[in-house]
Amino acid sequence: MRPSLVIFDCDGVLVDSERLAGESMRLSLLELGLEMSIADIRKAFVGLSWADCLKKIEAAIDGPIQDGWLERIQLRDKKWFVEQLEPVAGVRDLIGVLRAHAMPFCVASSGEIAKMHMTLGVTDLLPYFEDVLFSATMVERGKPHPDLFLHAADQMGHAPETCVVIEDSVHGVTGAVAAGMRVLAYAGDPHNDVEALRAAGGEIVNDMAEVPAAIGLNAK
C-alpha cells in the first residue's frame, strides 16, 4: 500500500554516521574500562537517545560516568562528522523520487535537533528536512517506545497506519512497529543485524533504490 507519509531515521539512514560514531564510542568506552566490539556497540546503543545510552553505560560500570566524558565524545563525533560524514548511498536519489511524487516525508531521530542540523548540514541534506525534524527530546520516551513516531505522525497530520518508517536499528524498528507503522529496515550497512531487524518486524531493504517500489512508487 502506498503510504501517506515517509518517516526517516537520521543516523544510518540519511547520513552514514554509525560507522564513525561506533568507533568513537568504542574508544570512549575504553576510557571507562569497558571493551566492546563495534557489533556489540551497535546492538546495545544504536537507536537510543544519549540519555538512555548513559543509563546503560552507568549500569555496566556500576557507577556514575566521569565528568567531561560525554562532552569529549560529542566533540570527537562532531570533528569526525565535519571531516568525513557522507549521505547514505542512494538516499539523495530516494528523496528526489519522493519529491517527484509529492510524497510527504520527515525525520524522527533519537538525536537532538542541533545534532541533526549539523549532520544534515554537513551532507547538504538539511534543506529537505529543516522544517520537519522530530527528536526524542520532544517526547517522554524515546525509541524503542512508539512515542516519537506517533508524535511525528501527529505533527505532520497523518494517521500512524498510513505511515512508512525507514529505520536501521532494532530499537527504532521496535518503536515504529509499536506505533502501528510499516517499517522498512535498511540493512545496507554490513554491521546491521539483518535477522534481528527482521525479527523486530522490519521488512529488509539492502539498497535505498529498493524503497520506491516497496512503497508503490515508480522511480522518476
3D architecture notes:
With 220 residues, the protein is an alpha/beta fold. The protein contains 11 helices and 6 strands. The chain has a 6-stranded parallel sheet with strand order 3-2-1-4-5-6. The model has no long low-confidence stretch (mean pLDDT 93).
Features:
220 residues; alpha/beta; Rossmann fold; DNA polymerase, domain 1; six-stranded parallel beta sheet; 11% strand
Short précis:
This protein has 220 residues and is an alpha/beta fold.
Tell me the layout of helices and strands.
Layout: E1 5-8, H1 18-31, H2 38-45, H3 50-61, H4 69-84, H5 91-100, E2 105-109, H6 113-122, H7 126-129, E3 133-135, H8 147-156, E4 163-167, H9 170-178, E5 182-186, H10 194-199, E6 203-205, H11 211-214
Parallel strand pairs: 1-2, 1-4, 2-3, 4-5, 5-6
Helix pairs in contact: 1-4
CATH topology of the largest domain: Rossmann fold
Q: What proportion strand?
A: 5-15%
Helices and strands, in N-to-C order? EHHHHHEHHEHEHEHEH
CATH evolutionary superfamily of the largest domain: HAD superfamily/HAD-like
Overall domain count:
2
As laid out across the biggest beta sheet, the strand order is 3-2-1-4-5-6
Uncertain runs: none
Which structural class do you get from the secondary structure elements? alpha/beta
Report the end-to-end length measured between terminal Cα atoms: 19 Å
Number of helices: 11
Mean pLDDT over the full residue set:
93
Report the helical percentage.
Answer: 40-55%
